[in-house]
Amino acid sequence: MPASQSRGRLGENSPACYPVAIWRLILDGEADGATNMAVDEAILSLVVKGASPPTLRFYAWSPPCLSLGRSQPLADVDRAACRAAGVDLVRRPTGGRAILHTDELTYSVALLQSDPRAEGGVLESYRRLSEGLLVGLRTLGVDADQATGHRGGAPRQAPVCFEVPSAYEIVVAGRKLVGSAQWRGRRGVLQHGSLPLRGDLGRIVDYLAFGDAEREQQRRAVRERATTLEEALGQVAPFEQVARALAEGFGRALRVTLVPGELSEQERTLAARLRRERYTASRWIDPA
Predict the structure, then answer these.
(1) Of the residues 17, 65, 82, 161, which is catalytic?
(2) Gap between the Cα atoms of 211 and 196, Å rounded
(3) 86: phi > 0 → left, psi -120 to 50 → alpha, else beta; which?
């Protein structure tokens, strides 16, 4: 079922409604899946402790990585196909369904639940934070909107994140462009998401546990219901250009001043421990 669109929602909470805030902006390079997830959690942990400022981070992935939502069964994955293709596997701290991270820009936002941009329920804070993406994409010239479709994500039996837009995810002509998820806990909020820059989004089904007929059906569904930035713009946009535009969007939509920075030594140390003890641990990858 195609998602309906919602023009005019931007501005329900205008930037003037927020107090001015200063966030750190981190522009990272590529890392493996376990490292990327460990860094996101380390930043959030230290934001909650008051040791790090609210942070907007952009990053990429190498090697390509299949990430599962926090509660998604490992049985959804064709692990042999991942190994044969050199595709990494990680479980996110956030919910949602599987994403193949390659040829993309990923963003993450870590801040306190008490921040007015994150107050309220998951859905409301999700909408507010996603407005930064919307403004940034429109800055690039993308005719993007927030979906008003499936609240709570894709149907439970669908293992692919990009098959169906959730409420307030970013769509172009009804096709999903940005897949995001949120985790709230310990007074903090982590929201991160995937913006495919280019490539065939149907590739993900090669690494999921489908029969041949179902695999082709799912491949067609993903291609029909999701899109890339290249398709939306009609040309390839470099990672750095997209990151700058999205940073501008977050600043304008959320009344945030972004100060370029790097991970602290404390964050690096915690991320290394989380990578070792959580994100590469078999009990995390396969909790069953």
Answers:
(1) 161
(2) 26
(3) left
CA distance linking residue 117 with residue 153, whole number of Å: 21
Q: Which two tokens stand for residue 218?
A: 């799912």
Give the CATH number of domain 15-285; options: 3.90.550.10, 3.10.129.10, 3.10.310.70, 3.30.930.10: 3.30.930.10
Cis peptide before 196 (omega within 30 of 0): no
Helices of type H across 204-264: 212-225, 229-233, 239-254
Residues 30-56 have pLDDT tens digits of 999 999 999 999 999 999 999 999 999
- pTM given for the model: 0.89
> Known catalytic residue: 65?
no
Structural domain spans, the chain? 15-285
What is the C-alpha to C-alpha distance for residues 238 and 242, in angstroms, rounded to an integer? 6
